[in-house]
Write a structure and sequence with these properties.
It is globular and about 65 Å long. The protein has 17 helices and 15 strands. Helix 2 links the parallel strand 1 and strand 2. The protein is of the alpha/beta class and 452 residues long. It has three domains: 165 residues, NAD(P)-binding Rossmann-like Domain (Rossmann fold); 136 residues, no CATH class; 86 residues, Type Iii Antifreeze Protein Isoform Hplc 12. Helix 6 crosses helix 17 and helix 7 crosses helix 17.
Length: 452
């Protein structure tokens, strides 16, 4: 039975999937826009540090005021309305909630939210992929131990890439490469919230009109978000990552099967079976026609002449050898698609992407020369950007994960372009996020010799 049919059945039975949303910003609002149009779900509660802003976002996406007037979660569950408040723990602990959608974008807080939800028997759809990037494998393990499902969020690119990889492998195709698109030039890694809009392609007026957060959008431009998302994909699928960070080869959609081949066959890959990100800009800044900037893709290989001939017979666009074929989805709709994950974890008990190991990491890297006493401001800020590395390399250098480089004091000077290590900072070792990261390192990489 399809997910939609299962949702219709739950609606007919009067047993909706009850959801708690933590964080009602841009991503959460996009999901909220779809909830009234989806059968069989009841968004019972919203937790946000700014409840009035959450109410404003509900009005913006078309909710009536009456729909969100429940004075408590108990009342919301009885009446079918929605309660709005600041207490995220109440959502995670309430016995009437089935699924928590973690949508804060704050990686350290997200770990707290996930762990509390697991402890109270809740499935979690984790939109905050930043948290998944530095400890997703252990979050997945904790969820399994609690008998619940932990999942990446459909609509965000990592889950969509995982879906393409699963399609390929289920069909019997070897995955040569998979990833997303991005607008990239090498100097973008130095971008700050002050320069983001020119690099991104929006005017400051357009950004203000949309209420867009410059630090959040800068995390895309400076390469942090592509590295974070590629890490999540690698850890969920087992695909390898480049030994020294993403290469961002420029390519049109038509050229993806040409460039996502091994180096010895004319492509850019160190070997088969890797994640990579395709740039929508040539090295000189020229915009590539028919780009994959907002989309996802997977390149597969025909291992026999028969399959290669099938590619040719059905006019599949391949590389010149006819062996490598790329399937793609040019757009992703972000929060508008999260309902797929909610339905999948609640009705099928299946994640739409989940870490199965620790293959990749995102290490905080200096945007400029940093001095002792400076406070790191995390992804998208003025001090560091995130570089994708193999997990083994991160452990070897004692790399500081980007997700923990928020509001942390620097103890030693770090040169521009240098990756930070644990010894460079005064890390708070009391947080669940730090402890979860350390436990994951111990579990998947042996004794955490480089962890403070």
């Amino acid at each position: 039975m399809s997910l939609y049919a299962k949702l219709q059945q739950r609606a007919a039975e009067g047993r909706p999937v009850r959801i708690g949303l933590i964080g009602a910003g841009k991503f959460g609002s996009m999901y909220l826009a779809q909830v009234p149009r989806t059968p069989g779900v009841h968004l019972a509660g919203i937790a946000d540090l700014a409840p009035d802003a959450a109410r404003a976002n509900l009005a913006r996406v078309g909710w009536t005021a009456e729909r969100s007037q429940a004075k408590s979660l108990d009342e919301a569950i009885r009446s079918g309305a929605t309660h709005i408040g600041e207490d995220w723990a109440a959502l995670a602990r309430h016995p009437g909630i089935d699924v928590i959608v973690e949508c804060t974008g704050h990686p350290i807080a997200a770990v707290d939210h996930c762990l509390e939800a697991f402890a109270h028997g809740k499935h979690v759809v984790n939109v905050t992929v930043e948290a998944d990037a530095f400890c997703g494998a252990l979050l997945a393990r904790k969820a399994a131990e609690a008998g619940v499902v932990y999942s990446l969020a459909f609509g965000d690119q990592p889950a969509l890439i995982c879906d393409l990889v699963d399609w390929a492998r289920t069909c019997g195709f070897p995955v040569v490469a998979a990833g997303r698109g991005h607008k990239w030039l090498p100097h973008y890694c130095e971008s700050t919230p002050d320069t983001v809009w020119g690099n991104y392609g929006l005017t400051p007026e357009q950004a203000r009109r949309g209420g867009l957060n410059p630090k959040m959008f800068n995390s895309f431009i400076d390469g942090s978000k592509p590295s974070i998302e590629s890490t999540a994909v690698s850890n969920a699928t087992g695909l390898f990552v480049p030994s020294n960070g993403l290469q961002y080869p420029p390519a049109s959609i038509a050229d993806i099967p040409f460039v996502t081949r091994p180096i010895n066959e004319g492509g850019v890959l160190e070997k088969k079976g890797m994640v990579e990100v395709i740039s929508s800009l040539e090295a000189n800044g020229r915009v590539i026609p028919y780009d994959i900037r907002m989309g996802v893709w997977v390149t597969v290989e025909a291992e026999t002449d028969y399959i290669k001939n099938c590619f040719e017979e059905y006019n599949a666009h391949t590389d010149p050898s006819g062996r490598y074929f790329t399937l793609y989805k040019r757009w992703h709709l972000i929060g508008l698609e999260v309902g797929v994950s909610v339905a999948s974890v609640a009705l099928r008990g299946e994640a739409t992407g989940v870490a199965t190991g620790w293959n990749a990491d995102v290490v905080a890297t200096a945007k400029r020369d940093l001095k002792p006493g400076e406070i790191l401001d995390g992804e998208g800020g003025y001090t560091v950007w995130g570089k994708l590395l193999p997990a083994a390399r991160s452990v070897e250098i004692g790399g500081l994960p980007l997700g923990l480089a928020h509001d942390v004091k620097l103890l030693r000077p770090v040169a521009k372009g240098q990756s930070l290590c644990w010894a460079d900072v005064a890390i708070d070792t009391t947080t669940h996020a730090y402890r979860t990261r350390k436990a994951m390192t111990d579990m998947f990489a042996g004794p955490a010799r480089k962890v403070a």
